[in-house]
UniProtKB/TrEMBL annotation:
GO terms for biological process: carbohydrate metabolic process. SUPFAM superfamilies: Glycoside hydrolase/deacetylase. The keyword Magnesium applies. The keyword Metal-binding applies. Residues 259-283 are annotated as: Disordered. Its cofactor is Mg(2+). This is Carbohydrate deacetylase. Belongs to the YdjC deacetylase family. Keywords: Carbohydrate metabolism, Hydrolase, Magnesium, Metal-binding. One of its GO terms (molecular function) is metal ion binding. The gene is ydjc.
C-alpha cells in the first residue's frame, strides 16, 4: 500500500465471553478484518481466549469490567459496594445509578481494576497493550480518575475515548440508544483532561457506536471512515505525522463479532446476554470478513494495525 492516510485499530471487544464469541473474533482476525482484541478476564472463556491470542499472535488488551458478572478480586465478591445481594456487578445502568447516588467506593473500584490487570498478566504473560472499559464504564465520573491512575501506575499507554464524529446525524439509531450514546460522549469528553493529565494516549478518532450489530454495513463503515478523515488528527494530541506533509489519522473502530452464544453457555457468571445470543454478532463477522470491506480499506489507504503500531 502507498503511504496510508489512516492507521486503524479494529478492536474485537468481549474476547473471552464464550467459546463461540472467541471463534468469531479469531475468524475475523485471520481474515484480516480485525487487528486487536479486548479481553474480559472475568468471562467464562477468558483462558481459552488468552491461549488463542498467543497461538494466533493477536494483539490483546484489557476490557476492564465493573458492570457485568462477578468481580475478580475475591475480597469484593461478597460485601462490597460493587455488587448486589447476589454477588453480581450492578449491570450497565445499575452501575451508573449507584454511581449517581454516591453508593460506590472508589477504593474498591481501584482494587478490582488492579486485580483484573493482574489476572490479565497471569493469562497472557504480559501487561495489556491497551485498556478500555466494558460498557464504557472507564469514562464515568470518579471512575475515570481511578482508571487513569491505574493505567499511569502500571504504564499501560493506550485507552479508548468514545467520542464518535457523525454520531448526531444517525436517524437509524433508536431514541434510547441515541440518549445513552450522547451521555457516553459527554462522559468521554469530560475524561479527556483527566487522561491527558496522566499522560495516557488514545487514537485521534473513535468509531463504532453507529456501526454496531445490524447497523454495520459497507455504506455505514464508509460513512464512518469519511467522518474520521474529516475529523482528522486535530481531535486529540496523539496523532502521528507521516514523512509527508499530510498527517496520518489514527483511529479505533470498536466491533463485537462472534457466533451467537448458546443459551446458558458464556457470559461473566450470569449467563450470556441477549445481544450475545442474537444474530447481530454473526452479522458483524460476515461484514468484517467481507472482501469488499478489505477492498474499501485499500481504496481509502487505511492500514489496519495494533495500538503499539500507532
Amino acid at each position: 500500500m502507498p503511504q496510508p492516510r489512516m492507521k486503524l485499530v479494529v478492536t474485537g471487544d468481549d474476547f473471552g465471553y464464550c467459546p463461540r464469541r472467541n471463534q468469531g473474533i479469531v475468524d475475523c482476525f485471520q481474515a484480516g478484518g480485525i487487528s486487536s482484541v479486548s479481553l474480559l478476564v472475568n468471562a467464562s472463556a477468558a483462558k481459552e481466549a488468552a491461549d488463542l491470542a498467543k497461538r494466533h499472535n493477536i494483539p490483546i488488551g484489557l476490557h476492564a469490567n465493573l458492570s457485568e458478572g462477578i468481580p475478580v478480586c475475591q475480597s469484593l465478591q461478597q460485601a462490597s459496594t460493587l455488587v448486589n445481594q447476589h454477588g453480581f456487578f450492578h449491570g450497565k445502568m445499575g452501575f451508573r445509578q449507584a454511581l449517581e447516588r454516591s453508593q460506590l467506593c472508589m477504593k474498591q473500584v481501584e482494587l478490582e481494576l488492579r486485580a483484573q490487570v493482574k489476572l490479565f498478566m497471569e493469562l497472557t504473560g504480559h501487561l495489556p497493550h491497551h485498556m478500555d472499559g466494558h460498557q464504557h464504564v472507564h469514562v464515568l465520573p470518579e471512575v475515570r480518575e481511578v482508571f487513569a491512575q491505574v493505567l499511569s501506575d502500571l504504564r499501560i499507554p493506550y485507552t479508548r475515548v468514545p467520542v464518535e464524529p457523525g454520531l448526531h446525524s444517525c436517524p437509524w439509531l433508536p431514541a434510547h440508544l441515541h440518549r445513552f450514546y450522547t451521555q457516553v460522549e459527554k462522559d468521554a469528553m469530560d475524561s479527556i483532561p483527566v487522561f491527558k493529565r496522566y499522560g495516557i494516549r488514545w487514537p485521534d478518532v473513535y468509531l463504532g457506536l453507529t456501526t454496531m450489530g445490524q447497523n454495520m454495513s459497507i455504506p455505514s463503515l464508509q460513512r464512518a471512515l469519511s467522518h474520521a478523515f474529516s475529523a482528522g488528527p486535530a481531535v486529540t494530541t496523539s496523532s502521528s505525522a507521516s514523512e509527508s506533509n499530510q498527517p496520518v489519522v489514527t483511529a479505533e473502530l470498536m466491533v463485537h463479532p462472534g457466533y451467537p452464544s448458546h443459551p446458558q453457555k458464556g457470559g461473566c457468571g450470569e449467563g450470556p446476554d441477549d445481544f450475545s445470543q442474537s444474530a447481530d454478532r454473526q452479522h458483524e463477522v460476515s461484514m468484517l470478513k467481507d472482501p469488499s470491506l478489505l477492498a474499501l480499506y485499500r481504496q481509502e489507504r487505511v492500514q489496519l494495525c495494533a495500538f503499539k503500531d500507532l
